[in-house]
What does this fold into?
Amino acid sequence: MNGHSKELDLDWAEKNLKNPGDLNRTWGKNFGFDYYYPLVSRSPQIREILNLIKKVAKSNASILIQGETGTGKELIAGLIQFISLRADKPYVKVNCAALPENLLESELFGHEKGSFTGAFQTRIGKFEQAHEGTLFLDEIGDMHLSTQAKILRVLQDHEFSRVGGNRTIKVDVRIITATNKDLWDAIQDGIFRDDLFYRLNVVTINVPPLRERQEDIPLIAEFFRRKFTSELRKNTKGFTEETMRLLKNHHWPGNIRELKNLVERAVLIVEEGQMITPDDIVLTGRDYFAAGGRDRRRGEIENTGLPTLKLDKLEKEAIVKALEISKWIQKDAAKLLSISPRSLNYKIKYHNITHPGWKKNI
It folds into this structure.
């Protein structure tokens, strides 16, 4: 595929990547998971999103992407840009929630030298940087009303002025926005402009939470396992069946971002050359039982009104008892507990267990 356009790459991928296993051979190449995940997704909702993206990506229509935090809204925005007619033009991203109002305005529109304290030189803003390309405004629901009004003007007139400047600057920019908020509620609360909303949502894409695309969890988890295994130069053998069952049944309030963090920790903890087991993942207490852990029935007692077991307390007591029996030698205690030394080390840190005989505590 060397020398092919991005559009041809996508066509090639759609013809050749039919299931998650096929994606294995693409992970080491220049094109990767972020762009081709929708092509191998087993989720009907993600497949519908892909079909919609292919219809609208090559237009100049503004697109609003909605979904919970961590669902992959930025991934969807990147895919839209990747197959758009502006794919070889600038792609500029701005997190509207990361900057206060005065700094966000300067970030978007730039400023003239001397326009405010600290403006020692003229600065080109993101709109100018994205000229003829695409500007992705993440967390648009957190933008202040005054900045919203200026964004609306750019969308209507395709022009703006830098902060502290009088010169009108013409731009040709395609806008993609994303939010984890309900903009209708924000409009009702008077914190989001309805006229801007109608400009932004010419096309709306609703990204489902991870718990609603359970069939994709093995694919995404395996991608992150390979990613962190490569980065850490560590040999891991995949997930056991029980581990994958727990991952698939977890509610995932943090969505893909939570799964990514959990897999990264698991790769750090698992023994070299071993499969990732439930002992290596950080699902404790109610989350562990709700996901179908071995002692699920005990966890379900929590919802019956009967007295509940303090699982963290029991775990800590068991670890301390094993350490006492093994004279505080961690590898011997790990054998008693039937977990890996690395898992035990993690749990010792988690429970803040210390002993004067350990070198780090001297």
Strands lie at 63-66, 91-95, 134-138, 159-160, 169-170, 174-179, 203-206.
